[in-house]
Structure formats: structure tokens, C-alpha cells
Amino acid sequence: KDKIDFILVDKSTRSVKVYEKGIILKRFNISLGFAPVGTKVKKGDGKTPEGLYYIEQKLANSSFYLALKVSYPNPWDIRRALDLNLHPGGQIMLHGVPNSGYDKKYHNNNNDWTEGCIALSNKEILYLWKNTTIGTPILIRK
């Protein structure tokens, strides 16, 4: 069994790499939010945040097959949003495809279809789910 100790999300290449002790275990193609360029600033902007976070929760009962909740917003994200008089948003996850309304022509990694989350296939999120513990760091970069 793999023990993922670091997750690297690369928005520009639409990929996620998972590591154990500095060695890449797997690489997956991903979909992002519907407006992926730039970092998330406010709720509803369709952006995937950029920065260092951690896996905060493992959700078996969400709108998607499985989900790993990211610790967005962090204190800096909250401060930036408040300075702009905005709500920072939240509920950023790595997840599979929707449990209802799944459309394989749309919900695939040729499209950026999430609200700001990082989407993988159900098989890929199952692997992450089984091999990731709460507290695992995740770096999301442009």
C-alpha cells in the first residue's frame, strides 16, 4: 500500500503528482474550475486556489464519488478577501465525477468543469482516498 505524503497540483499542466518520500508514485490528469487562470479570491469566481494547504477531511458522502477536502481558505486567503470586502469561498476538494447528472462528454479532463475544485476519474480519486491521510500537505501552483 502506498503512503502519499505530498500532493502537487500543477494547474498549468492540468496534472496532480503524488509523492512518497520524494518519489513520484502516480501522475493524473485533472480538470479545474471553469475560470482556472489566477488564484481564487472570492466565492463563485470559478478559480482553483494557489498555495500550500493540507487535506482537512475525507468525505464519503458528497455530491461526488469521493472527495478530499482542501484546507482553503487559509488565514492569508481570508485576509485578502476581507481586505477586498469579499467572501473567500471554500469547499475546495479533490473529487471524482458527480453522483447524479454525470455526463461523460462534459465531466472529463478535456474540460475545466468544476466550481474551483480539482476533479479526477473515480478510479483515481479512489486511489488517492485509500492512500492519503488527513493532514497531508497539498501544494497547488499555477
Structural class: alpha+beta
Helix segment tally:
2
Largest β sheet strand count, sense and barrel closure: 8 strands, mixed
Task: Specify the overall morphology.
Answer: globular
Subunit arrangement of the protein: single chain
Number of E-type strands: 8
Rounded average pLDDT: 96
SS strand fraction: 25-35%
Major sheet: arrangement of strands: 3-2-1-8-4-5-6-7
Outline the low-pLDDT stretches.
none
Order of helices and strands: EEEEEHEEHE
**Ends: how far apart?**
30 Å
Radius of gyration: 14 Å
Which percent bin holds the helix content? 10-25%
Structural commentary:
This protein is α+β, with helices and mostly antiparallel strands. Helices cover 13% and strands 29% of the residues. An eight-stranded mixed sheet has the order 3-2-1-8-4-5-6-7, covered by helices on one side. A hairpin with a 2-residue loop joins strand 2 and strand 3. The longest helix is centred in the last third of the chain and has 10 residues, at 122-131. The protein is globular. The model has no long low-confidence stretch (mean pLDDT 96).
